[in-house]
Task: inverse folding
């Protein structure tokens, strides 16, 4: 759920092994896609759930594990 009340109708999956360290500016310029509509920012409660899940995942790249996992 986003701050603009958007959520996907189908299940959406995030994979810990695909987490990488990138600035928002670089990410947006590198993966710039036309005709994509911004649906809002993930609400803090959902973001915290992702952080908790990933920080306990053995699949998360080592440099992000446990107390080092900060965004």
Result:
């Amino acid at each position: 759920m986003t701050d603009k009340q958007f959520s996907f109708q189908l299940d959406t999956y995030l994979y810990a092994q695909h987490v990488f360290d990138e600035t928002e500016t670089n990410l947006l310029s590198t993966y710039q896609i036309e005709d994509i509509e911004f649906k809002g920012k993930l609400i803090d409660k959902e973001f915290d759930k992702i952080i908790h899940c990933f920080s306990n995942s053995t699949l998360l790249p080592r440099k992000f594990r446990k107390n080092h996992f900060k965004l």
Observations:
- The two ends are 19 Å apart (CA to CA).
- The mean pLDDT is 77.
- The helical segments are 24-30, 44-55.
